[in-house]
Specification:
Rossmann fold, globular, 2 domains, mainly alpha, 5 strands, double-stranded DNA binding
Length: 253
């Protein structure tokens, strides 16, 4: 929750712009500063800064809910808790599909079809809710330059020929899949950190990273001293932000 943008903490636009000039854009950035530092960058008094701290803290603090409320929310509309893979055996094992509101890791040896699965899930997320989809956009972060737009269209046409029966529908579907090629750990992390506002403006309902392992293997040799700690730090920070996005927007990641 600390990754929440300050703009969503109901601070004034003028104050957010002023803080942004000092690279303070998230609740975490704000709360990590001392009172004196905040007084300096905001130009406000001690008491006003104390009020701001309280406001930002409340905005990013997780809301308390009981186990019963969590269960009730899912039981009211069970289909909204999962994105079906349309693969009966896999959906059965996953108790309905890929869960919304949490992270899902897909692992296998090379060449087993992980990218094809991710492309298929991209198509499914754009489908109407009446067809088991999420009726939303997709953010696809490609770290291996493996994504194929041609394959996306091919899967859509072959799996759902009665729905994608015109070029207009295929065009609309492809426009809903937003592809980013990020080839380093640093660029992947920057992209993840910048996703929140884009998810709101583009109505993103699925986030895919294909794959985290690829950039980690290229940049971190765990045999070298210090690399293991840096690798763990990158994975922990990325997972924390992705978990926040999944929970905040109730989407599969």
């Amino acid at each position: 929750m600390a990754a929440k943008k300050l703009r969503r903490a109901r601070l004034s636009q003028e104050l957010c712009e002023r803080l942004s000039r000092h690279q303070i854009t998230t609740c975490q950035d704000f709360l990590c500063l001392s009172l004196l530092e905040l007084m300096k960058v905001t130009g406000q008094s001690y008491y006003d800064v104390k009020k701001l701290l309280s406001k930002v803290s409340q905005a990013c603090a997780p809301k308390m809910q009981t186990a019963y409320e969590m269960k009730l929310r899912k039981s009211v509309n069970p289909s909204s808790a999962f994105l079906s893979t349309t693969l009966h055996g896999l959906d059965e094992v996953l108790h309905g599909g890929v869960p919304c509101g949490s992270l899902t890791e897909v692992t296998s040896p090379p060449g087993c079809g992980k990218t094809q699965f991710c492309i298929m899930m991209s198509v499914l997320a754009t489908l109407p809710v009446s067809m088991g989809g999420l009726d939303g956009a997709v953010v696809y972060i490609d770290t291996e330059s493996a994504f194929s737009a041609e394959r996306l269209v091919e899967i859509a046409g072959n799996r759902f020929p009665s729905y994608f029966d015109s070029d207009e529908k295929l065009f609309s579907m492809t426009c809903s899949v937003h592809l980013y090629r990020e080839l380093t750990c640093d660029s992947v992390l920057k992209r993840i950190l910048s996703l929140e506002e884009e998810m709101i403006s583009k109505k993103v309902k699925l986030v895919i990273i294909d794959s985290v392992a690829s950039v980690v293997r290229k940049e971190f040799d765990t045999k070298l001293q210090g690399n293991l700690a840096e690798r763990s730090n990158f994975l922990a920070k990325g997972a924390s932000v992705l978990k926040y996005l999944a929970e905040e927007f109730s989407i599969p990641v």
